[in-house]
Amino acid sequence: MKTKLTALPPIGMRIIKSSIGVLLGFIIYLIRGRQGAPFYTALSVLWCMQPYTSNAKANAIQRTIGTFIGAFFGLIMILVEFYLLPLDNELIRYILISILIIPVIYTTVIINKKNASYFSCVVYLSIVVNHLTDTNPYLFVINRILDTMIGIILALIINTARIPRKKNKNVLFVSELDKVLLNMQSTLTPYSKVELNKMLDDGAEFTIVTMRTPAALLEALKDIRIKLPVVAMDGAMLFDIKNNRCLKLYKMSYLESKELINLFNDRGLHCFVNVVVEDSVLIYYGDFKNEAEETIYKELRYSPYRNYIKEELPERYGAAYLMTIDKSEKIDEIHKELELKGYVNRFKVLKYPSEDFKGYSYIKIYNKKANKENMIDEIRKMINVDKIIRFETTQESTGVIIGKNDSNEMVKNLKKIYEPYFWEKQ
To answer: 380-407: per-residue pLDDT in tens?
Structure first.
């Protein structure tokens, strides 16, 4: 029996930059005539090297503050030991070193830089524990500070260094969510998260279209810094993730919703009725007819973004969409009836097999105007761009076709189009 191998993640630029930074630290150590300790330079490089420039700067500030606090108290300890209280007893010396940890940490508390306390202690201990063979305590402390600052500066330079690229900021990039941006486990890889966020922070006009509800969107994209509204519910809703607001909604009337619910109920089928109320999605449901819909309910009901209500649809609400799942034979029958009675002309009706429940299929019914293209055009008007590029899996797509085997493929393609190198032709 063959075992399916999991694809190894790519080696990211952070790893490569870390290696380069450590190498440069060693080279600077040699240029300085082997003064100082390159270990502390390498340590600073590795700590300050971050996926995002803003994080690198924050870590550099912490490391710098921690360095000077630790060096200050380290120098005090050395001066006390050299000139005031020579400590021949090793235990007493270690007790004093440990006691001085208190003011080191407390200083970071006083100046409201608690995150720097660890670095303060590292620098302090590197000085007081390893200075025994040094005859000049001042030089030792200065070297420790210099070693650390060299590493911090190297990390900041390498983090901010960029090969010149053009920026296509007059393009709206639109990606399908499932099987395009997300991998087969419905998540983003660390590489995709970092690279996509870098482009979003840089000003890339990027949005998502999906059949998912805002609840499922928020869970899938919680670490992604999307600024533009996204198209949810297969075009029924334009949703602002940043402010958690529904900007535009195509819904059915109460009478239309009730007519469809009654039709499904008469055929022994159960509906999940999705309603948007003041930017929140309420899901009305009744008694389950099969294990698939009960499993869906049990898996999703604990999400803080979903609100399930077991009661009839109130007259004041119309459905954003209805969803039912059942054996494929029953779904085929009801779909034929919907066609014969003209419902597929009055509404937007989708039928497709379930990937999670073998032998089951879905039907989803929306307002006839619920259209992804219309919502994408609404976004285009908001930001006034000239061009739209879509990332999809369908072979009929006029955009960029993304395969299902490489979970990073969409982000790699986006990066090539959004910020090509200056020598590349578009």
So the answer is: 999 988 889 988 876 555 566 666 546 6
**In this structure, CATH architecture of domain 254-367:** 2-Layer Sandwich (3.30)
Domain boundaries, the chain: 13-160, 171-249+372-418, 254-367
CB proximity list for 66: less than 8 A, separation 6 or greater: 108, 113, 116, 117, 118, 119, 120, 121, 122, 123
User: What phi, psi does 310 have (nearest 5°)?
Assistant: -90, 85
**Distance of alpha carbon 275 from alpha carbon 213, whole angstroms:** 11
Place of tokens 């900041």: 156
Q: CA–CA separation, 341 vs 350, rounded Å? A: 16
Sheet with strand 321-327: strands edge to edge = 307-310, 280-285, 272-277, 321-327, 360-367, 347-353
Contact 359, 330 (CB under 8 A): no
Query: pTM (2 decimals)?
Result: 0.71
Tens digit of pLDDT for each residue in 85-119? 666 677 888 888 899 999 999 998 998 888 888 88
